[in-house]
Amino acid sequence: MKRLYILTIALLLPGVGHSTYFQALAAYNQGDYESAYALYKEGAEQGIVSPQRKLAELYRDGKGVERNYSRAAYWFTNAAEQGSTQAQYQLGLLYARGDGVDRNDQTAVHWFRKAANEGLADAQFHLGLAYDLGFGVDEDASEAMNWYRRSAENRFVDAKYNLAHGYQHGKGVTQDLSRAIYWYEKAAERGHTSSQLNLGILYDNNDHLEDHYARAATWYLKAAEQGDPSAQNKLGEAYFFGRGVEENHSEAARWFLSSANKGNTASQYNLGVMYSRGIGVREDPEEAARWYNLAAKEGQPEAKNNLGVAYLNGVGVEQNSAWALYWFALAAQAGNQNAETNIERHLRSFDENLAVRQISPSAANIRAGGSTSYEVIAQAARGTKVRILDTVDGWHEVYLRSGHTIGWVSPSVLEALPRSQPRQTSQSPNFPPRPASQPGRTVCNTRCNNGDCFRTYDDGRQVRFQAERRYNAMTRQWEWDSGSC
C-alpha cells in the first residue's frame, strides 16, 4: 500500500523534465520571463502539458517573447488536447475573441464545455454566458442558469451575480427574490460592487423588513466606497431623505458630487437642485445651472426642464428664450409633464421673443441637421407655424409644436405669418404690482397659485412661469418653490 501511494504522488508531477518546469516557474515568479520562456519551451517541445500551457500564456501576454496569439493558440491546443482544463478554457477564449485564430463561437463553446464538464468554474461561467447570450449555441436561459449555478457553487463570483440576477428577474428560473438576495449576498461579501448595489436596491424596496432602509444603506456604502457612481447616488439619496442613516444634507452633497464627477446624471441633477436652493451647499444659481447642463446633455429629463427654467428666467445663465424653448422641448419629448406645461404657459412669450414663420410649400422636410445630407425626422404641412431657435450656415433650427420637434429647415420653405389686426391688450390682474427699486439689487413681487406664478420686476418686466417642486427637509413634504428674483 505504501509503494502504491508513492507511485501516485509521482504521477502527479509534471512529468519528464519536471525539475526544468519548476526552474521555469521560479524564474517566472521572479520576473525573469526570458529565462522562463526558454525553460518552458524546452519542456513544451518534449510534449509535457504544463510547460505547453505556460508557454502559450507567455505568447498570449507577450512576456519573455513578442506577443503572438497564433503561437499561443498552437500551444494551448497542444495542452488542451492532452486534457488540460485551463488550456481548454483559454483556447475557448481565443476562439470567442478571434485572437490568433478565426473567430468561431461554436469552437469556443466546444472547449468551454470540455473544461466545464471537468469542473472548471471559469469555463462553467462562460458556458452559461454562451447560453445566456446565444453565441455558439441556441439561446437557453434555463441552461444558462444551470451553468451559472454550477460555477457559483464553485465560488466563481461573477456567476453568483448572474445567478442572483436571474432569480431577481425570473430569467431561466421562477422569480425568487429570497434566492436573489442569497446569491447577491454571497457575491457582495466577496466585494462584488454590482451585487452590493443590487442588494441595496432590493432591500430599499422591501417594505416588509422593518430595517430595510438601514440594510440598503449598508450595502450602498460598501459599493460607494469602491467608487460605484450609482451606489454613491443612492447613498446620497439615503442621506438626503434620512433613509437608513441620519439625515445629513452635507453628506448627501458629498456623495452626489463624487458620483456626479463620474458622470452619473441623477447625481448631477440632484446637485443642481441642491445648489439652486442652498440645501447642504451654498446657494449658487450658476453652479446649479452648470450641473443641470451636464445632466441635460446626457438626457436627464428633469435637468432639461430645470435648465429651460433657468434660461427662461435668466437665473444662473443669461436669459435666452431660444435655449429655454429648446430644453423644454427636449424634456417634453422625454415625457416630462412640467416641461410641456412650461411650453404651453410661455408660448406667447416665446412668440414675442423669437422669429416665427410658417411653412410655405404643401409639405417641407424637417431634418436632423443643417443640410440635405441629414435624415428627415419629420414633415410639416403648409401653414405649420415654426419658431426659429438658431441659424447656422444658412439653415434654421426650429421648434414645431407637434411632438415638440426640434429640427432644421431651409429658409426657402418658410414665409412670414399673415398680418393680423392689432389687438388691444390690458394688464393681467394676476401680475402683482411693480415694486420700488433698490440700489444694487434686483427686486420683484411674485404671486403664485398651485405652482402657476406671476412675477413683476422693479424695471417693469413681467414673467409668468411654473414653480418647481422641491422637497422641504424640515416639513418632509414636497412644496411649490418660485425661487428668488
Please sum up the structure shown.
The chain has 485 residues and is of the alpha+beta class. It has helices at 2-12, 18-29, 33-45, 49-61, 69-81, 85-97, 105-117, 121-133, 141-153, 157-169, 177-188, 193-204, 212-225, 229-241, 249-260, 265-277, 285-297, 301-313, 321-333, 337-353, and strands spanning 355-359, 363-367, 376-381, 385-392, 395-400, 405-409, 414-416, 444-449, 452-457, 462-466, 468-472, 477-481.
Keywords:
single chain, 485 residues, alpha+beta, Serine Threonine Protein Phosphatase 5, Tetratricopeptide repeat, SH3 type barrels, five-stranded antiparallel sheet, three-stranded antiparallel sheet, 20 helices, 53% helix, 13% strand, elongated, disordered N terminus
